[in-house]
Amino acid sequence: MTCLVVNYVGGQVPPRPADPVAGGRAAAVDPAVEGQRRLARARDLLERDAKDEALAELAWCFDRCRGERAFCATRLGEVLDAWGSLAKVHPPARAALEARRDARDRAVRAGALGNDDVAELLALNEVLGDASASLRAFDEVSRRRAPADTAFFYEGVRVEMWRQRRYRSLIEGRPHPEERLQTAAVALREASKRLVGHDLRPDPRFAQRVLADVCLDVEARVALDDLAGARALVTAARQFAPEPQTAARLIAHAERAGDDSFVGGLRREAERGLDAEARAELARSIEAAKAELRQLSKPTGG
Hints:
The two termini are 34 Å apart. The chain is globular and about 65 Å long. The protein has 15 helices and two strands. The protein has a two-stranded antiparallel ribbon with strand order 1-2. The chain has helices at residues 2-9, 31-47, 51-64, 72-87, 91-109, 115-127, 131-142, 151-163, 167-173, 178-195, 204-223, 227-240, 244-257, 260-271, 276-296, and strands at 21-22, 25-26. The protein is mainly alpha-helical. Helix 10 (178-195) runs antiparallel to helix 11 (204-223) and helix 13 (244-257) crosses helix 15. The longest helix has 21 residues, at 276-296.
């Protein structure tokens, strides 16, 4: 087991284990099914504090299931979540993650800009707590490649651009953010139609993610004094998500941009027609949104 972990720490993929034999013939092993089995085993090993053995299982899941469509979300989600938790208490696990991140970073900088390659780099940097490293890679690649080649990458580093107040980069990457709301609204309408008769509704988290994303564009426009563009986007955002929390989120972002006059206008509009209790609730929602932004804006990595 020690040799296996050393190989994984170095970023090398060990030989595939021998397939089980049934009736004298090698039985095919579905990597996605095997990945789920090994992930469950890794969790069991972690419960028993068998760190090296758990690391080997997680590394197998990550390395051998690359490209497996049925395991893609699990690989970059549950597998890396478990690996990241292990890395916080087990240095070899962090070294193994860094080795894979460094290899993927080199590949992306060399031109491997497929969605799978970029998504892997973004996920590895996220679990390592270094989203700024993804932005550095994006900056290098975007200087050499056309915007169409880096569009997926741009979407993945938007929050880090916002965190670093790179408002011009945010706007240049998405000149028409209202289209994001329009596309999402169509998707929600279509989803609602499909769910008619099933006593189900579209996942409300989808709309909240879209709104949170577009609020970055509102803040950027306010900060760059494109107030007409910001107002138009605010109107579109409120039409997309008319609940009071939308106003609170927009106000919090406008405050971060530093335009007191714009903030005042948003507050007056949000408070119009509200009674004292509703105004107090709005104020609490604004404070909660501001606290969320303060947490999200904390620097990552180096």
